[in-house]
Amino acid sequence: MTQRSFFRVVAAGIMMLLLIGMTGCNGLFAKNQLTRVVPIGQSDAAMFVSKQAPVIVSILVTPERLQAFEHDQQLSKLKTSLLANTAINYQQEVKPWLGNEMTLAVTSLDIDHDSENGQEPGYLMVLSTTQPEKSREFVQLLFSKRALAGANLATEEYKGVKLISDNQIPSTPVEKERVKNQNSLAGAVVGNNFVLFANHPKVLREAINNVQVSDLNLTSSDKYQKATKQLSREAQAVAFLNLPVVAKWQNLKLDAQTYDNEIISLVSNPKGLLAETAFLARKETLPPAAQLSKPVGALDFIPASASLTLAGANLSGLGDSDLAQLWQQVTGSLSASTEDVISKFLPLADVQKRLGINWREDILNSVQGEYAIGLLPRGEQTNPDWVFVAEKSEGTPVAISRLDELALSQGLSLNSFTLNDQKISAWAQLKTAINKSSEAKERELFTIQANVLAARADIGNYEIFASSVQAINAALTAKENPLVKNPDFQDSIATIPEPNQGYVYIDWTNSQDILERQLPILKFVEVLGKPFFKNLRSLTLSSYGSDTELLKAGVFFQFNS
Questions:
Q1: What is the pLDDT of residues 402-420, one digit of tens each?
Q2: How far is 117 from 109, CA to CA, in rounded Å?
Q3: What is the spatial distance between Cα 360 and Cα 366, in angstroms, rounded to a whole number?
Q4: How far apart, in whole angstroms, are the C-alpha atoms of residue 240 and residue 218?
Q5: Beta strand 536-544 with 462-466: parallel, antiparallel or unpaired?
Q6: Nearest by Cα to 435 from 415, 449, 455
Q7: What is the DSSP letter of 364?
Q8: Distance between CA atoms of 386 and 377, rounded to whole angstroms?
């Protein structure tokens, strides 16, 4: 196992420990108040990490406190698999002294800052200890085992701290090739509170410097201090990212750099898991999107069976909001087109092409009031049906007339019919079919077939657009069983602060196949987080807050009992 892979495996393990434990919290949290976790929401280990570090991730509870909620002994299995090749017995050697914090940080993109000999990121792990003597014994025992396995040990005293390490980072390409498969590790116990591990003693020395010269460490950063004020005191995990450095590390472009830091926290509650994030801007951003203090009325037309739903207000102003700036930065970093990404999840491209319209210019920009968009499963068919509900405004008649003109210019017909006493307008492609009469061979019967590309209905204060007659019928009858009255949806939006900028609600069971087709990498993520995704029922996304120097958002995960 290489030094890089060692810390990557541990990093994945730290996150999976949390996710598995959090998944088990659903339904058990309220029943077992004795084991309820109430951390303080901030990382003490941040003082070891530089302001310039790409990322720091902290779990603020012990695996045992999470294990009180788990199912099927997943945590125990994971701990066993993680330590299988380390000769470490967690139960006997780690558990007795491990405290309430486990932190992993990528401290720099290159340990020796010399690109000529290749890049080797610095990795630092900080574990809190409740019994300093036992943790010192563990460090000594760990390196003794490594020495017996053939590693060359080195010790040094640095500013009052004893550092132990084996193997050295290569200084030339030749040395790098020689030691590339060696497992380098450095460790130290700092004071009576922390055990540190790194992939090179230089990383440990810099960590100690960061503590002794406070201006160097993350806790002295104004951005970090502002970010941590957004955290819940019950946060069980926290991550802080330096976005420009992360982009450089992952070879991503960052042309539109509005936000340069992000903080993420995880908090469990009786209904599920809330992941909150705050993006911190370099300077004042555009104002937030339209704020809502209750679910929009347009949701009354979205059936409870919808697999994915978006709801909010004022689509016409969305392009001039802080959300648009964030979206531009994300899609720019991924070298993706905003339009391409949107079309992946809203299967409108075919309709746009065949009607000759531009959804943003011809429809979305005319929506100034409430709106809701729902994707409806369509049996075995690959693409789902869709329903788009928009509150009427002064520009609605002009927008609809424009759609009719565009459809006619493409050779489509505009047809009207009644469905359950409701007038429906449909844009359709008409085709003729010839059938031979059974009575006279020379006689031909002509039938006209209509391929409906989209349909529209005018209901009270709303216009409803849909991909098919079946879809618009589902919208018209949705009040019998609307999404807004679905208990899962109600529980989800109850966790989101108000006012907010609307919701994206995903029924994971019904939308999993759709999302996997559009995002193939999701299947890989699901394999890594199998216990998490196995029990996932739904997720709800929203953004909120009015601060023009940061954008707050949350994702609420619900799990099956």
A1: 888 888 888 888 888 999 8
A2: 13
A3: 9
A4: 10
A5: unpaired
A6: 449
A7: G
A8: 9
Helix, strand, or coil here: 221? coil
Whether 222 shows a pLDDT value over 70: the answer reads: yes
Q: How many C-beta atoms lie closer than 10 Å to residue 515's C-beta?
A: 17
Provide the sign of the torsion angle of the four alpha carbons 393, 394, 398, 401, taken in this order: positive
Q: Please, what is the end-to-end C-alpha distance for the chain in angstroms?
A: 38
**Listed residue (57, 47, 5, 45) closest to 126, CA to CA:** 45
pLDDT of residue 65: 62
pTM above 0.70, yes or no: yes
Q: Which residue has the higher pLDDT, 270 or 478?
A: 478
Give residue for tokens 């999107």: 289
Rounded to 5°, the CA angle 470-472-474 comes to 70
pLDDT in tens, 493-512: 999 988 999 999 999 888 77
Of all helices (H) and strands (E), which one includes residue 102?
strand 98-108
Torsion of CA 479, 482, 487, 489, to 10 degrees: -150
pLDDT digits (tens, 9 = 90+) for 430-471: 776 666 555 555 556 666 676 788 899 999 999 999 989 999
449-466 burial: b if 16+ Cβ within 10 Å, else e: eeebbbbbbeeeebbbbb
Given a contact cutoff of 8 angstroms between Cβ atoms, the answer to whether 124 and 207 are in contact is yes
DSSP 90: I
Query: Would the pLDDT of 478 be above 90?
Result: yes
Side-chain-side CA neighbours of 459 within 13 Å: the count stands at 23
Read off the tokens for 356: 């000759």
Mean pLDDT of the chain: 78
Nearest CA to 106 out of 171, 236, 200 is that of 200
Report yes or no: 274 and 264 within 8 Å, Cβ to Cβ: no
Q: Does 71 score more than 60 pLDDT?
A: no
| Residue 89 or 556, more confident | 556
- Six-digit token string for 198: 């790194």
Per-residue tokens: 488: 């899962």
Alpha helices in 154-269 (DSSP H): 173-179, 201-212, 222-228, 243-249
190 three-class SS: strand
Number of other CB atoms surrounding residue 114 within 10 Å: 12
Contact of 530 with 499, CB cutoff 8 Å = no
Cross-strand partners of 313: 370
Closest alpha carbon to 472 in 398, 358, 364, 374: 374
Taking CA atoms, 439 is separated from 433, 435, 442, 445, 448, in Å, by 18, 12, 9, 11, 21
Q: What distances in angstroms separate CA 324 from CA 271, 317, 329, 335, 454, one per listed residue?
A: 31, 10, 9, 16, 28
Whether 184 contacts 169, CB under 8 Å: yes
